[in-house]
Amino acid sequence: MCKNCSKSDLALLDPVLEEFAGDNHALVAILQRAQEIYGHLPCDVIYRIAEKRGLSPAKVMGVATFYSQFRLKPVGKNLILLCKGTACHVNGADSIAKALKDELGISDGETTADGLFTLNEVACLGCCSLSPVMMINETTYGSLTPEKAKEIVRSIKAEGERQ
Amino acid sequence: MRVVVGEGSCGIAAGALAVHRALEENGCEVGITGCIGMCYLEPIVDLYGDDGALAARLVKVGEADAPRIAQAAKSGDVTGLGDLLITGEDRSFLEKQTRIALRNCGIIDPESIESYRSAGGYEAISKILREGMTGEDVIGEIRTSGLAGRGGAGFPTWFKWNAARNSKGGEKFLVCNADEGDPGAFMDRAVIESDPHSLIEGMLIAAYAIGAEKAFVYVRAEYPLAIVRLEKAIAQAEKANLLGADILGSGFSCSLRIKAGAGAFVCGEETALIESLEGNRGMPRLKPPFPAEKGFDGKPSNINNVETFANVAWIIRNGGAAFAAMGTETSKGTKVFALTGKIRRGGLVEIPMGLTLRDVIFDIGGGIRDGKKFKAVQMGGPSGGCIPESLLDTLIDYKALGATGAIMGSGGMVVMDESTCMVNMARFFLDFTAKESCGKCVHCRIGTKRLHETLVRITEGKGREGDVELLEELCRGIKDGALCGLGQTAPNPVLTTIRYFRDEYDAHIRAKRCPAGECAALRTYSIDSGKCVGCTACAKKCPAGAIAGDLKKPHVIDESKCVKCGECVKACRFGAVSVK
Question: CA-nearest residue of chain A to B296?
């Protein structure tokens, strides 16, 4: 991590830092808002938050890496959250994971070279009765089979190319 | 007739929004409700008669059904909807339940405070304030009810409230733990999405009882719909002077804020949750001091789970004795379960304590689907265990379930059939806890990793004699050496599967065989020469080129080349490829 490896527009962060200026317990909330602004948490943003909050960058980084929601790298246009919860496991989530990895050529946590898809395996989306399940952006897809999962990804890709 | 679409997360995932739109396009005025709990029948559309009673419940509705539903709603004649009507058998799924925490779920409009009020909502807090009940009175009623923490530990709710009430130190906080992290559990999400005001009312009563003026709901970020509905409900309650300063002119003030979690299972542990609320890494603290003395911001705090709060208003309105009349000696009231896995009728089930596991899984859930055989039920998620068929008559009771080595837990009930490998199940949970261990305690951080590695080895056919004993030793060490509940209970999935399914461990380790046929590395594929017609479909699909044979002659699999992907089984239309 270095201060200069990213060039973010830090002015966008000021209103957030101001809003939480009097709140000593707001680091997680600030990081959440920062991620909404930048899509992920670039290094210079982490340094900026540390400086403004009077914390060490290590402390901020420690919180950012503790929670699975925070990302230090940009994500693809479509974020696939593949549920690996218990019900999905029992109903074949591993075969869906394999199908997606084969189709996209990436592993858990990676982004495709064209920047279209990021694959994240998550613990539970809470739609157990429709297992196995995945969520792409805000849409949930249930009762998946490996073929169905591949088709969904292909159709999103085709749509992206049409636009 | 009034048309209402069930729009919880499950319903929406099953297509409820498309049905909603289609109904509107056909001229219907469409109302919404939350989750009735019959997830396996979603999307669900309810038709209410002019008398306000449910006239017809339609299940597995598609967009294409919208025109005739709209027609029926206009004419009041539902005879043309016979194929969509819920069957008597499916109705019994609900009829066998007793709903307290879920009393309004799937019935009222979760986005309307009037709808909650028309179901008796906010009467409990009004009664308390109007009649001038003291905090002690409220706590006394909760004590009579025997309500215990529904998040899993089952600690008496009144005791925690009382400790927080009696704690000296000025400002106090109330926190709702909605960080529902157990994979396979979604009770809390359903309550917030379907009846957010009942959570708010329960929290108001608790805040009044302990003397807190600030309350938080700590919700998982993975539950966006729950957050949206709760935000709406808070705004409505503030407008109605049910939240904020001088509530209903009583002098009692309480504010409520949502804090979105950022994704860490350990934050379900109350001291870790407090750390996370304070903006830190969510690592558990040593107890004592308990949160009732030193919690959020070092001030006395009380933390309860969503389902616990959802019971509170009902208890105040109906009396603690009515709640305590249900259940067993050691467990009172009802409990909500998320029934999932290889079950025929999966969904949310609320039953009185004291029924048996068999009642829930077979009577209500309809047993195992696809004609397979029941093997085990997993309760309590990563902190719980697997209960075998021989113990299906165990009562749903904190003590009785604890004696099996599993726990009541927060309500996840994942049913498994003969095709589920129990060693792989233990591996699955340890993969989870090893990733979710916060790293503070060495035994948990490294112990869960070693457990996971050993289980991976066994499921890959590299198990060694003595591995089971090694697992048991590691489990003892982790139980003794971990600070918080996550570590202390992490070995439970391993210990219970060893206890009840030792033969499966032995088969993996000694015979290099997976009896359930789930562990890929231990499978062997072969082609039955009597059934194979030599169509070459499997050979074409095989990614490893392991299948050889001439056209119209039986084919053979070269085991040394086989990568055990199972593509040949799927490709064969004659059932000639068998797996062992």
Answer: A25
Q: How far apart are CA B370 and CA B451, in angstroms?
A: 33
Q: Residue B531: what pLDDT?
A: 94
Q: Is residue A72 part of a domain?
A: no
Chain A, 71 to 130: residues with Cβ < 8 Å from chain B are: 84-91, 122-130
With CA atoms as reference, the chain A residue closest to B8 would be A127
Please report the ipTM that was assigned to this predicted complex: 0.90
pLDDT for A139 equals 86
Q: Which of B12, B280, B374, B431 to probe by mutation at the A interface, max A CB count within 10 Å?
A: B280
Distance between CA B405 and CA B334 in Å, rounded?
22
Nearest CA in chain B to A126: B186
3-state secondary structure of B46: strand
Task: Give A25's contacts in chain B (Cβ within 8 Å).
Answer: 277-279, 297
Residue A21 has pLDDT above 70, yes or no: yes
Band the pLDDT of A1: cuts 50, 70, 90: low
Query: Which pLDDT score is estimated for B439?
Result: 95
Query: C-alpha A128: how far from its chain's center?
Result: 21
* Closest residue to A90, CB basis, from B39, B277, B420: B420
User: Are A61 and A96 in a shared domain?
Assistant: no
Number of domains in chain B: 5
pLDDT score, position A162 = 65
Look at residue A163 in the predicted model and tell me its pLDDT: 58
Domain presence at residue A156 = yes
Of B184, B282, B346, the CB nearest to A124: B184
For residue B116, the SS3 value is helix
A28, A84, A140: residue with CB nearest B276: A28
Residue range B518-544: mean pLDDT, rounded: 91
The verdict on residue A71 lying in a domain is no
CATH at residue A61? 1.10.10
Asked if A86 and B181 come within 8 Å (Cβ–Cβ), the reply is: no
DSSP of chain A, one letter per residue?
Answer: --TTS----GGGGHHHHHHTTT-TT-HHHHHHHHHHHHSS--HHHHHHHHHHHT--HHHHHHHHHHSTT--SS---SEEEEEE-SHHHHHTTHHHHHHHHHHHH---TT-B-TTSSEEEEEES--S-GGG-S-EEETTEEE-S--HHHHHHHHHHHHHHHHH-
**Domain match, A61 and A102 both:** no
Q: Which amino acid is at B180?
A: E
Find the length of chain A.
163
Task: Verify whether the Cβ–Cβ distance A142 to B14 is below 8 Å.
Answer: yes
Can you tell me the distance from the alpha carbon of B367 to that of B392, in angstroms, rounded to the nearest whole number? 12
Q: What is the mean pLDDT of residues B360-373?
A: 95
